[in-house]
Design brief:
By secondary structure, the chain is an all-alpha fold. 54% of the residues lie in helices and 2% in strands. The longest helix is centred in the middle third of the chain and has 21 residues. It is globular. Keywords: DNA damage, DNA repair, Hydrolase, Metal-binding, Zinc.
Amino acid sequence: MPVRCAWAGDDELYIRYHDREWGIPVYDDNRLFEMLILEGMQAGLSWITVLRKRDHFRKVFDGFDALKISQYDEKKIEELVNDPGIIRNRLKIRAAIQNAGCFLEIQQTHGSFSRFIWQFVDGEPRQNAWRSLPEVPAKTAESDRMSRELKKRGFKFVGSTICYAFMQAVGMVNDHVVDCFRYEEIKSGLNQSGRR
């Protein structure tokens, strides 16, 4: 039985997410956008709640196509608010639409969102070495900076704690605890199947 980060618990969906996704560096703009929106949706809730709804989110949010989302109108907002398959928070839904427009602007000005967002760790994943879950910070100077920059560009639901959770999820930081079997794999650049 491999040792995992304690937060993965015993839920199969959580374990799969921990083992196959969390902490693997992501450079694809569409996936980065999806994670930024989902982390914002999580505010005040548990991540497992979002994970359980993620497939339906993808369906009703047009595969997290930022261009399509940026054009959502009031009718679409009402549809989303009334969809029990997602988190039906009007403010978060409106924020996702606004964030889509801001995301597209960054793509235009920086060539890609990936190039912009990875600058907060100088383009390289940070390799931390936490021994236990309580040591892992909720935010850092880098996430503070990212939050400030995103807010300056009009993004919503991008506080420093949300930004740090995003950084952890997309592998900008390796926050698997050192005893976790994924820690060394991620550190050495191995993906979920054990291949570089």
